[in-house]
Sequence to fold (209 residues):
Amino acid sequence: MTTAKFITFEGGDGSGKTTQLSRTVDWLKSQGKDVLQTFEPGDTALGKEIRRLLLSGEHTPVPATELLLFLADRAQHVEKVIKPALAAGKWVVCDRYTDSTLAYQLAGRALEDTQTLRDMLAWAECGLSPDVTIWLDLPVEDAALRMQERESGGEAANRLDEEKTSFHQAVYQAFDSIQKDSPQRIRRIDARQSIEGVQADIQAVLGQL
Ligand code: TYD
Fold:
C-alpha cells in the first residue's frame, strides 16, 4: 500500500496553477488515490474569515500583520484539515503553502529574513512539510500578459495581485532561489508550455512518488 503524500502547488498569478492542480487531482484519482484538494489561505471556517481580512482589499495590513495572518490561517488548516486527511490515508494536494509566505511576505514585503522569522514559519506548519512541491515557473513578463487577458475575461484580482511589478519580480526571484535551495523537494515545471505539456511534466514528477 502506498502511504499518503502531502503535495503543494506554487506559482505566481497567471501560471495556470488552478487548472493544473485540478487536472492533477483528477489524474491522481484515476490512479486509485483517495485525494483531498485544499488551498491557502481560507480552507477552514476560521480561515475563510482570515482570507477575507487579507485579500478583500478592505484592510491594508502592515507587513508583520499580513505575515501573522497567513501563519494563523496555516496552523488552523494544518491541524484541522491537512493532518486529519493524511492520517486517514488521503493524498493531500494543497494550492500554496509556506513557500508562498517566503516569497510574498519575506521577499515581496522585504521583511528582514531572520532566523526568528524562519522559526515562526516552521512553527506555523505544526511539523508538516510537503513531500513534494510543484512550482509552475512563469516569468513575470509572461504572467503580466496572461493577467491582462484574465482581467478582460472578468476574473477578479485580489489585493496582492494588484501589487506593482517590482513586488511580483521580488516574489518570482524568491521562488527561483527557494527552488534552488531545495531542488529535491521543489520541482520546477516550465509553465510556458501548453496545458498538456505542463500536466505531463507534473505527472512525471508525481509518478516517482
Ligand atoms: P488566490 O486568490 O487564492 O489565488 P492564486 O493562488 O491563484 O493567486 O490568492 C491567494 C493570494 O495569497 C495570492 O496572491 C498569494 C497570497 N499568499 C501570500 O501572500 N502568502 C501566503 O502564505 C499564501 C498562502 C498566499
Notes: The beta strands are 6-11, 35-39, 91-95, 132-137, 186-190. The longest helix spans residues 63-87. The helical segments are 17-30, 45-55, 63-87, 98-108, 115-124, 140-152, 165-181, 195-206.
